[in-house]
Design goal:
The chain is of the alpha+beta class and about 80 residues long. It has one domain: Alpha-Beta Plaits (2-Layer Sandwich), CATH 3.30.70.20. Helix content is about 20%, strand content about 5%. It is built from 2 helices and 2 strands. Strands 1-2 form a two-stranded antiparallel sheet. A hairpin with a 4-residue loop joins strand 1 and strand 2. This is Ferredoxin. One of its GO terms (molecular function) is metal ion binding. Keywords: 4Fe-4S, Electron transport, Iron, Iron-sulfur, Metal-binding, Repeat, Transport. One of its GO terms (cellular component) is cytoplasm.
Length: about 80
């Protein structure tokens, strides 16, 4: 499952550089996560790094992008092979 950033985001800029896939970018009002690039850090780390550094806990799982750990690993391999 990809992650998402909610409107509690305070634009503190700490999550973007932590994403190993470059899935996080500034949106119109808050940061956004590209579900096509988000692997929940599967393949890189044991836990999503953006969730670890977020001071306001505004990065939950995105219920509209459900993926298994195997699917996330497959996406990781596709992203890192390019």
């Amino acid at each position: 499952m990809a992650l998402m950033i909610t409107d509690e985001c305070i634009n503190c800029d700490v999550c973007e550089p932590e994403c190993p896939n470059g899935a996080i970018s500034p949106g119109e009002e808050i940061y956004v996560i590209d579900p096509g690039l988000c692997t929940e850090c599967v393949g890189h780390y044991d836990e999503p790094q953006c969730q670890q550094v977020c001071p306001v806990d505004c990065i939950p799982l995105d219920p509209t992008h459900k993926e298994s750990r195997d699917e996330l690993m497959e996406k990781y391999h596709l992203i890192t092979a390019a």
